[in-house]
Task: inverse folding
């Protein structure tokens, strides 16, 4: 079994033993590599100053672009999570001849930097966006490209202007990182690395990274105390904040290819539990646009590049943004247990037994008679936890205009995402008209008040039922919120 | 070389002088300094309760942890534990009592982060908890105040109120604001010879670092050097509250003779340090049928937190800004600073001005709603007039406008260019037609007084060194926190010496070079330090001009011809102004510097600047003014709000660097917008624990929150001849224009039924929804 973690850092190979490989990536870069351009400002993924570029080798790609680069938060990752990747920091995007990269130049010229603490992160996020544009994985910069990077000085206007100019730079003038670090061989080599498991051991911690589901299940059977992790976006935050001790044993699922598959089978989507939100968002653009829309306000890009569907489901936060949608559509979970035995269960109410791994989500798409809307009410426009989130889906008989079925699920009202059954009952069998929703809204308000923290949340619960009607009747709300 | 071709550096939109370092990650912030051999990490264990008496401190378990080098309490302080910028009422380490959650009690020095974390958990502090005072209301009930009442009075407000045709009164509750500078507070102390210390600090005030560390350790100030290369944001939060970190590090270095690094993590920073002061403002206004104010009485109560810090100066500035841009005939303003069991609140961009201005803009908005008039017209009628108009004097006796009535002109210009009237009419039509959304628009002003209200702080000094190759190093008492101070000083000095900006470097701020400087604050950093730098550079230039004159004209028989005035300094060249093409009378600045050095002419200069002509009735050197229009949209069912458009117009005199000033204006507006909308400090009402103690729980604006249409303009051909390069200070004033977003929300809410909306500040979605549902209940 491999005992080292292997990756390249700004073009240079690193092979690390467990001691360094279990550090948070941001600390490794600053303390061990003296790459202090990676800043630490919150250690919880809510500011983007620790942004680095994670280059994933694409084994299928032609020699031109062996890596796909994504912006990620170095504070959230442990070093071992970059195994088999090419990691690029701010030091690695600056041209070696002392000039500035086009992104750096635009940020300077547009006065997009003041104190400078957020700037390396901004430059790297914009670099990742331009790389994606060059690689034709994104046509233009997404509107939420920079929502994961806070700046407290500039008011963002200079940064916004720089981003617009960078987006407009002719692609032929963009020297991609794959030319700066020209190694198809390196990409192939790292891709091979990713296909071999590793086992790290320090006195405090054991980390096993299997590459097949079977070996993961076997490890979990033998080590029931092991904590299965995928994106692991919260573990370093919780350990750093003293909310939990460092887990003694981790089974990291990030290199199991069969957990990440995305597919469509007729009216059903199959979503790998280990797929990142970015992967799902790209897939859903055509497969299920409402889900892609949901993901726009889900989190900053850096989080979406790491966090997984399975993690969001199993963490079961009271405001997990994916859950209301999955619940109203009756999503099913495929779970693998000891010996590879599979079972299927509803996502709503799902709990895993020790030794089990969530493999896949089966998501039935809404039919033509169904109306679906989802909402996320938060303080700011992006990159924010929900006060209340919701998904409402009703089936309306085209003949009678009567609601034949209603699904109302909301987060932020209780310790976990909650189905409002009284509200559903109040809608079912009623005509699709405003009065129905006014009454149902009152019921939702009362129903929510039983568990909600404050009047604000229960009022939102009621109002979202009304808002659903407004949007459904007017055909709006598809591409807002 | 022709004169017309010469472009001065001043007035050009040069990029920030550190921007290359910023975009390449090469700029050094405090924690980027390399770790010295033997360097220690410093951490703090604080109080777990907001108020109580320390019963015992048990360090035995922590002391046994491998890698823990020292554990210290107040008894280990060799000099003075007590400090404070105005009143020495703070303890670096708590003695018998604790007065806020997180108040430092024990200091730990450790060799590794792991040892430090273990030691923090192992320290046991037993405290007898007492009932804390957590709000302004509780403080008023229990008579818990810091200092005496502040007061500004003119005329007879009581009589004027009684005689007023109309009266309105109300209470405005205003929340605090977390600075959220991206770089947290921190300091590193390095041991020197013979007990001397050098403290690098992320501070707006290296002089205070030097003074507090010396005081703490019982040393002379000459034994300590305070240094700041740059801050990753300050916003006032590092004016006084950088000092404890420096003192922590210095105490450890003092005891261990090892370098010591004390840096707060984000949660420690947010929970332990002070913020913008929350205020409660009770007001009563009298006005005419036309909405012109005849009288104002206002009682301001701020939450000062546990100790004075700068709270009394903050309250002074509040009272001095309650008028904002409007004439208040008969006025009585009183202010009390409440003492609560929260971290001591401190300076934050605007320094008490924003709270007072929010109150006054709110009053004008309410008058407009009461009279059913456009709030812009009401504000215009209340604007200060020219000095001789009878409506030109502030309540404290300083002329608001001088010769001309610039404020109404600025106001009208902004309304015209932003199409305010058309857009307001559109909004009224929109609101009549929409069941789902409400829009609102508002235009507010700012008139911000420039100078420290503590007059002794209105001074600074600069050191300019010219080297024998003609390059220049400049050091001033001012610190760089992103605001572009160094960039502008570089431009000023380059022009004063006639050299290219690339030949000029502005260095770290250090008490070794610039002694007894004020904090870089009050928007005055540029005025004070830029003026001092120009004095120094000009003195060197005059010496060089005299020397060049002897070189150029010394051969002439007539001694009168040796005229330094004829020596021109432009673009790195020195030549005879009367004959620019004469190669005999022309050399590079570097060559002149070299020759001057050979002739033993001093190429260095330290200069001092003090703002002239300030007194009790003229606390401000001048005012920076401006206006903003904000348009907002509210979702009636969720209370969610977005600012759709912002239009700003500011008079910043003759800008030294328009791009940098624009950055300050936009950044200030957005920070102010955050304060009045999404940024809410939430506390546990029983314990006083901060519930919004991380950036994920405290929502500063993201790039998605700024208005999609954002126009910024400066008043053309503006001058400010009293100040350096005819410029004006710009750091704080635009923050107060963010208030336009709040009054626009109030305007939008006024379209819902239910009379004048009772909106709190910040206007979070929750607060907006509360107003909307109240309106709904009134209507039904």
Result:
């Amino acid at each position: 079994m491999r005992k080292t973690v292997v990756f390249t850092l700004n073009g240079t190979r690193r092979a690390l033993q467990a001691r360094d490989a279990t550090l948070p990536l941001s600390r490794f870069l600053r303390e061990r590599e003296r790459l202090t351009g990676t800043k630490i400002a919150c250690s919880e993924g809510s500011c983007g100053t620790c942004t680095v570029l994670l280059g994933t080798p694409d084994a299928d790609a032609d020699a031109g672009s062996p890596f796909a680069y994504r912006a990620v938060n170095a504070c959230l990752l442990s070093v071992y999570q970059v195994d088999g990747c090419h990691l690029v920091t701010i030091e690695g995007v600056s041209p070696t001849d002392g000039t500035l990269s086009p992104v750096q130049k635009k940020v300077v010229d547009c006065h997009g930097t003041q104190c400078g603490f957020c700037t390396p992160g901004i430059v790297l996020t914009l670099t990742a966006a331009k790389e994606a544009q060059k690689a034709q994985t994104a046509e233009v910069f997404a509107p939420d490209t920079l929502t994961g990077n806070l700046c407290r000085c500039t008011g963002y206007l200079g940064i916004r202007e720089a981003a617009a100019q960078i987006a407009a730079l002719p692609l032929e003038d963009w020297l991609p990182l794959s030319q700066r670090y020209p190694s198809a061989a390196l990409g192939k080599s790292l891709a091979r690395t990713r296909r071999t498991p590793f086992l790290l051991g320090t006195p405090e911690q054991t980390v096993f990274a299997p590459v097949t589901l079977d070996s993961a299940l076997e490890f979990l059977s033998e080590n029931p105390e092991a904590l299965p992790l995928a994106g692991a976006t919260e573990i370093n935050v919780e350990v750093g904040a003293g909310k939990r001790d460092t887990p003694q044993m981790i089974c990291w699922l990030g290199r199991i290819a069969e957990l990440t598959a995305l597919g469509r089978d007729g009216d059903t989507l199959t979503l790998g539990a280990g797929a990142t939100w970015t992967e799902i968002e790209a897939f859903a653009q055509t497969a299920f646009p409402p889900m892609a829309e949901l993901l726009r306000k889900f989190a900053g890009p850096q989080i979406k590049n790491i966090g997984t569907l399975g993690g969001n489901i199993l963490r079961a936060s009271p405001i997990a943004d994916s859950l209301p949608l999955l619940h109203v559509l009756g999503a099913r979970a495929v779970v693998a247990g000891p010996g590879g035995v599979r079972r299927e269960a509803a996502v709503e109410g799902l709990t895993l037994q020790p030794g089990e791994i969530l493999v896949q989500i089966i998501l039935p798409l809404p039919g033509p008679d169904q109306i679906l809307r989802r909402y996320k009410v938060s303080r700011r426009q992006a990159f924010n936890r929900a006060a209340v989130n919701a998904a409402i889906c009703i089936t309306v008989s085209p003949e009678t205009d009567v609601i034949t079925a209603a699904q109302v699920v909301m987060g932020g009202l209780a310790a976990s995402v909650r189905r409002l059954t009284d509200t559903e009952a109040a809608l079912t069998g009623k005509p699709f008209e405003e009065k129905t929703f006014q009454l149902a809204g009152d019921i939702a308000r009362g129903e929510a008040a039983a568990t909600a923290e404050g009047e604000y949340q229960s009022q939102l619960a009621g109002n979202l039922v009304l808002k659903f009607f407004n949007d459904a009747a007017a055909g709006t709300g598809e591409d807002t919120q | 070389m022709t004169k017309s071709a010469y472009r001065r550096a001043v007035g050009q939109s040069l990029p920030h002088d550190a921007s290359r370092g910023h975009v390449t990650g090469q700029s050094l912030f405090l924690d980027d300094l390399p770790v010295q051999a033997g360097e220690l990490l410093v951490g703090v264990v604080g109080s777990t309760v907001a108020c109580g008496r320390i019963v015992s401190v048990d360090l035995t378990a922590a002391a046994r942890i491998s890698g823990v080098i020292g554990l210290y309490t107040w008894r280990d302080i060799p000099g003075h534990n007590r400090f404070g910028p105005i009143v020495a009422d703070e303890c670096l380490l708590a003695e018998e009592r604790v007065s806020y959650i997180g108040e430092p009690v024990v200091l730990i020095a450790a060799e590794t982060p792991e040892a430090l974390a273990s030691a923090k958990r192992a320290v046991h502090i037993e405290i007898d908890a007492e009932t804390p005072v957590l709000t302004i209301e509780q403080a008023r009930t229990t008579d818990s105040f810091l200092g005496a009442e502040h007061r500004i009075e003119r005329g007879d407000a009581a009589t004027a109120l009684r005689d007023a045709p109309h009266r309105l009164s109300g209470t405005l509750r205003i929340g605090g604001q977390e600075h959220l500078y991206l770089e947290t507070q921190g300091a590193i102390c390095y041991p020197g010879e013979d007990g001397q210390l050098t403290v690098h600090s992320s501070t707006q005030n290296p002089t205070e670092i030097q003074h507090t560390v010396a005081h703490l350790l019982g040393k002379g100030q000459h034994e300590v050097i305070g240094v700041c290369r740059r801050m990753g944001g300050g916003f006032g939060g590092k004016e006084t509250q950088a000092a404890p970190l420096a003192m922590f590090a210095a105490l450890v270095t003092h005891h261990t003779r090892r370098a010591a690094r004390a840096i707060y993590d984000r949660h420690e920073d947010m929970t332990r340090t002070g913020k913008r002061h929350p205020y409660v403002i009770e007001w009563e206004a009298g006005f005419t049928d036309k909405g012109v104010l005849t009288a104002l009485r206002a009682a301001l109560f701020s939450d000062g937190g546990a100790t004075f810090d700068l709270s009394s100066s903050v309250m002074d500035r509040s009272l001095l800004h309650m008028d904002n841009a409007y004439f208040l005939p008969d006025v009585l303003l009183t202010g009390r600073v409440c003492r609560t069991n929260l971290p001591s609140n401190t300076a934050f961009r605007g320094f008490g001005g924003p709270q007072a201005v929010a109150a006054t803009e709110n009053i004008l908005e309410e008058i407009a709603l009461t009279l059913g008039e456009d709030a812009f017209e009401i504000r215009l009628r209340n604007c200060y007039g020219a000095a001789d108009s009878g409506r030109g004097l502030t309540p404290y006796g300083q002329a608001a406008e001088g010769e001309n009535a610039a404020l109404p002109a600025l106001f009208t210009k902004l309304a015209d260019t932003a199409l305010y009237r058309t857009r307001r009419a559109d909004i009224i039509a929109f609101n009549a037609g929409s069941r789902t959304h409400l829009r609102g628009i508002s235009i507010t002003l700012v008139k911000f007084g420039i100078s420290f209200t503590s007059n002794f702080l209105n001074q600074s000094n600069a050191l300019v060194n010219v080297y024998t190759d003609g390059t220049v190093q400049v050091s001033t008492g001012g610190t760089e926190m992103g605001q572009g101070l160094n960039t502008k000083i570089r431009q000023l000095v380059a022009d004063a010496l006639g050299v290219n900006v690339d030949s000029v470097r502005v260095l770290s701020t250090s008490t070794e070079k610039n002694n007894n400087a004020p904090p870089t604050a009050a928007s005055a950093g540029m005025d004070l330090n830029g003026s001092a730098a120009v004095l120094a550079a000009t003195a060197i230039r005059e010496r060089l001009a005299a020397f060049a004159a002897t070189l150029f004209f010394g051969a002439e028989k007539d001694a009168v011809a040796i005229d330094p005035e004829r020596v021109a300094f432009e673009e790195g060249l020195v030549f005879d102004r009367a004959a620019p093409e004469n190669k005999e009378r022309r050399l590079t600045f570097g060559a002149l510097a070299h020759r001057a050095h050979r002739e033993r002419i001093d190429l260095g200069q330290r200069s001092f600047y003090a703002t002239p002509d300030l007194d009790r009735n003229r606390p401000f050197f001048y005012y920076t003014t401006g206006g903003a229009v904000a348009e907002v949209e509210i979702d009636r069912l969720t209370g969610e709000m977005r600012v759709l458009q912002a239009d700003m117009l500011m008079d910043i005199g003759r800008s030294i660097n328009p791009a940098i000033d624009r950055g300050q204006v936009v950044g200030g507006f957005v920070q102010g917008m955050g304060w009045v909308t999404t940024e809410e400090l939430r506390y546990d009402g029983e314990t006083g624990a901060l519930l919004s103690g991380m950036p994920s729980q405290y929502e500063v604006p993201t790039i998605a929150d700024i208005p999609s249409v954002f126009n910024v303009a400066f008043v053309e051909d503006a001058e400010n001849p009293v100040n350096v390069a005819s410029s004006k200070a710009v750091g704080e004033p635009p923050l107060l224009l963010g208030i336009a977003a709040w009054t626009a929300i109030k305007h939008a809410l006024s379209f819902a039924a239910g009379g004048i909306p009772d909106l709190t500040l910040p206007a979070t979605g929750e607060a907006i929804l509360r107003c909307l549902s109240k309106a709904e209940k009134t209507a039904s």
About this structure: Chain A is about 35% helix and 20% strand. The radius of gyration of chain A is 23 Å.
